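Re-running the complex after MR caught last week's input typo. The corrected sequence lines follow. Everything else is unchanged.
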Amino acid sequence: MDMSLVLDGLVKRFGAITALDGISFEVPRGQVFGFLGANGAGKTTTMRIVLDILRPDAGTATWAGTPTTDVPRETWGYLPEERGLYPRLQVLEQLVFFASLYGIPRDVAAARGREWLARFRIPDYEKRRAEELSKGNQQKVQLIAAILHEPVVLLMDEPFVGLDPVNVALLKEAFEEMRGRGTTLVFSTHQMEMVEELCESVALIDRGRLVLGGSIRDVKRSTGRQVVRLALDGSSVDGAGVADAPAWLASMPGVRVSRPGHDYVELAVDHGVDPEIVLRAALEHGERVTNFLIADPSIEEIFIERVGRPPSEDHHLAATEASAATPPSGSAPPAARPPEVAA
Amino acid sequence: MTAGQGAGDGPRSGYAARTMPNITTVARREFMSRARTRTFRITTILLVIAGVGLALAPILFQWLEGESRGDRVEVFLGDINPPPNVDVVTALSQILNANAGSPIPLPGQGGDSAPKFDVSSTDDLDAARRHVVDGSSIAVLALGRSPGAGDLKYDLYSKDSALSRKVQLIRQAAISITIQDRLTRAGVSPIDQARLFTPPEFSLLPADPNAKPGLNPAEDPTAFLVGFGLSIAIFMAIILYGQWIAYSVAEEKNSRVMEIVLAAATPFQLLAGKVVGVGALAILQYVIVAIPMILAIVFQGQISSLILGGAGALGGGGAEGGGAASAGIQFTTIVAFGVLFVLGFATYACLYAGAASLVSRQEEINQIVAPLTFVSVAGYLVATYAGTGLIPIDSPVVIVLSFVPLFSPYLMLTRLSLGTAGPVDFAIAVLLLLIAIPAVLWLAARLYRSGVLMYGQSPSARTLWRALRAD
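Corrected-run output:
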């Protein structure tokens, strides 16, 4: 039996707005899966459908061949984008409460809760009320609440947002450990470096549609482009401190400068063009090459190429939007937002 | 819909195994987190004090009035000859302070009621008259004998008019004393006098031979009191604890904790857990408040004599009413009350939860639950009016409404306690409630499911409609 999370043709409409427009992809079991998309792309709605918090208008979500609605609840762990705890309940009691909902005995839950609080370096907070905690610490408590019952699949909406570098490192460590135990980790993020670092597979959605998906390697290959980083000794530097790309580079067919930089220039090499021609041309032009690297395009570049704007910029934009307007039905952000809003 | 299924369409076996455990878990959290708040403790203590205070109100009222024995009336006998055959001061005091009923003081009757008049004798008519003028007494009654028949005659000095109730009472007392005086002078022994004044048998029967007994609440004040009290108990529980549930839902929604909970439990489980948890706490608080109150009512007589002392002890109406009320609550009424309380509360609680799930801020709760509160108040008022006879208890409106689920907890209880509804009526009302509760749960769970993830929208009919249609 196929032991993966399969989404097939998910459609979800909120009134006139289509939040999901036929999303299909597969999360292999035991992998760390990055779920990418601009705010309002439909990530949260997709997660809510998998968890049966929302029902799709069409399509199915299955885990190991079983509809996700019929999978025992304790299979899932969920860290929603909207962080929330009972404000007046003590930290450990919250943890025990959430674990109890998944059938974990109270004493076991308390012991595990203390263990995790210690791991996240907040052992003294077990008797504190949630409302007394900082946002970052609340988020850690909430993450513990999501994993205390040791779910098979952990769905997390922007788990890294709002954490300082120390806590990001702690969280990554926890990810690695859970992955080692065979937990399937699905998380959405705007931080593409996290995707590069942690994920084996990704799905990129935009305005309710899947743009691309699959293993990181396949996704990178799918662009048909390669990236060349070229550093030349003695490049002239202009007034802005940016190295001028040598004139001969601009005349090369199938090669263009994607990012001029201090130390090196980054070149996008079209599909079918051998990146080595750049090195040969450099040598022919008598340049001293200090660094030459052939790489796949970064996920961030692919994101920009496919969605038309960088994820970080979109995040900022969407955040201001979210505070200004709410969708007319359901809290899922409008996916079919007019393009000019985000442009 | 079976337990374990959500508000949606398809089966959701993923939740089924955890229906009861999750209801228990949610109920436990709801119960504990609320029971531990300072607000709950303070409210409970205040309610206990208020309950006992209410039960002992007549005694406390009297006690607070302190040593004042009532309005002072002075009696001036002067050189009356022959002296009256009656101890005028005692007789007057007894008659004035006796319960309405017997116009004549008989040995052993009256006099133990709350004294409204403080009767004393005086030798100085002028001083006594000055007391009336300065307000320290209300009247001076000066006795004499009429020259002819030798009958007693009275002069009353007072600032009150001849038509005032106090003057009327004193006048009536004077007549009684005169009759006693005449009888004694005519040689009738005190025992014969007592027999003379024994009230006759007197019964009140309905003119219409087909009329059902007990239709007039005035005829059965105990039944009325019981029905009225129990209706208030249900009404307060629904308004007070329904609000608790509404606030609890809004708090979860406000703190955004809802989404995590909904990933683990169905709206049905959450809703049922809340109703059970808050309901259990409500019953606990009720019991805590009711026990001292009932004890206070039952031992009203003893408490009264303890506080006020033997002579001033509250008897008559108060103790009788209290005793009768406690004795009058029959086991069947208690059972009916328990059943209607639980079912009525559950119905309203589900609706309160469903309604509250539609709003985003706690300030909006009152607005969204207003229609429910209105229905609740309406049911309670109709029950009260029917109980007091403002609306005939056997009017078709009352009878029909006493079966309608949102009204039946109030009206069926009133009809039962007044004896105009039988076990069959009660069973039908309970059956209808039992049918209504799953429907209400379904409706509430459906509202809940789409409502809890809805933020920033004003509660309107359109929102409601959309929430109901949404999947």
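None of the earlier attempt is carried over here. The longest helix of chain A spans residues 165-180. Chain A has twelve helices and 14 strands.
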